[in-house]
Specification:
Layout lengths: L1 E7 L2 H9 L1 H12 L5 E5 L4 E7 L7 H11 L4 E5 L5 H7 L4
Antiparallel strand pairs: 1-3, 1-4, 2-3
Helix pairs in contact: 2-3
C-alpha cells in the first residue's frame, strides 16, 4: 500500500534543526531506510512530505517516532490507493 506522510516543522523547531544538521541527517536516514518513492521539502511551509510503499503503518513506526521527536509534532499519515487497489483498501476497513 502507498502512504503519504507529512511532517510540519514550526519556525522554532526549524531553526533548531538548522543549528544541528546531524539531527536532520538522522531524521532523513530513518525515512531513507524505507526506500521512499519520493521525499519533498516545502520551504514556504516548512513541511516534509514522504511518499512510500509499505505493507502497513507498523513497518515505518520507527521513522514516524523519529519524526515526532525531531519535529515536536505528530506526522500526518494517509493511506492512498489507485483505482486498482481500491477494493483491497475497502476490504481492509471493513466496507466490503
Amino acid at each position: 500500500m502507498r502512504y503519504i506522510v507529512q511532517i510540519d516543522l514550526d519556525p522554532e523547531t526549524g531553526a533548531d534543526l538548522e543549528a544541528h544538521p546531524e539531527r536532520i541527517q538522522e531524521f532523513m536516514g530513518k525515512w531513507q531506510a524505507h526506500n521512499p518513492v519520493g521525499m519533498y521539502f516545502s520551504l514556504t511551509r516548512r513541511r516534509v512530505t514522504v511518499v512510500l510503499d509499505a505493507p502497513n503503518e507498523d513497518s515505518f513506526f520507527e521513522a514516524l517516532h523519529a519524526s515526532w521527536v525531531v519535529a515536536k509534532s505528530y506526522p500526518e499519515v494517509w493511506p492512498v490507493v489507485n483505482a486498482e487497489d481500491f477494493p483491497a483498501i475497502m476490504k481492509r476497513v471493513g466496507m466490503v
